[in-house]
Structures are given as C-alpha cells and as structure tokens.
Amino acid sequence: MRHHTPHDRGSMSVEAVLLAPVLVVIVLFIVHLGRYGTTHLRLVTAADHAARAASLVHPRMMPTVGRNVALDNVAHNAIPCESFQVSVHVSSHSDPGTVRIDLRCVIDRRGLDMLAPMPRELLVSSTEVIDRWRIDS
Asked: CA dihedral defined by 108, 111, 113, 118, rounded to 10 degrees?
C-alpha cells in the first residue's frame, strides 16, 4: 500500500483547476468546427435547391425564384448566419444556358465568446443547366 506524504495532498485539485479551462476551450473549438462544417453542408444544399428551382422557370423569373428558394431553404433549415447574401447569375449567351447561385454567409459566433473567433465567411456556389423543355418556355 502506498503512503501519501503531506506535500501530495491537493495536487489532484490543482491539476483539475489548471486543466479545466484548457478542456473548456477544446470543447468550444470542437463546437466551432462542427458549426462550420454543418453550415457549409446546409449552404451547399440550399444553393443546389435554388439553382435547380431557378433552372426550371422562365428566364425572367430565374433571379426571383433562385433568391426566394435560397432564402426559404436557409430559414427552414435554421442555417446560423450573422449575415446572408444571395446572388443569382443567369447566362443565356452560351448553349446550353446556365444559372448560378452564389450564397455568402458569415457564420454565427454566439456562444463562442471565450474563443473570440474571427468572423468566418463561407461562399458556396451551385450551377445548373437551364432546362430547355420546361413548360413555360
């Protein structure tokens, strides 16, 4: 059996007090990385849906439909953005024509004040070929 000397008393408490902030920062960093990855995947999905929806309507309606579908998708999936922008680019000069949706999101940093993360901006783009056989052409 091991005998504890008086100078060993409380060393575990000191170690726990010193390591606790490091562990909290590591957990917050993991949360930040998870938020970044999840937001990126959700933005890719929103851009894909918006580009597909825009490619199916009349060219005059493409910017409106693309923007509305992207905004609806972001709201419906609760994508955590401090600021959000949608850009719709229709290219009918080439054959086949394309519609491109660009989404720009600054990831929400609420709850991560201890890390003091820099604003992270995600830019996601999706391009679809304009459907020639749509009903309203």
From this structure: -20
Residue 42 lies in a domain: yes
Mean pLDDT of 90-95: 80
1 in a structural domain: no
Region of 28 please: left (phi>0), alpha (psi -120 to 50) or beta.
alpha
- Domain ranges, residue 85: 6-129
Say how many domains are in the chain.
1
So what's the pLDDT on residue 9? Answer: 67
Q: Is 75 helix (H, G, I), strand (E, B) or coil?
A: helix
Q: Can you state the angle between helices 11-55 and 62-76, rounded to 10 degrees?
A: 150
Q: Over 90: is that where the pLDDT of 88 sits?
A: yes
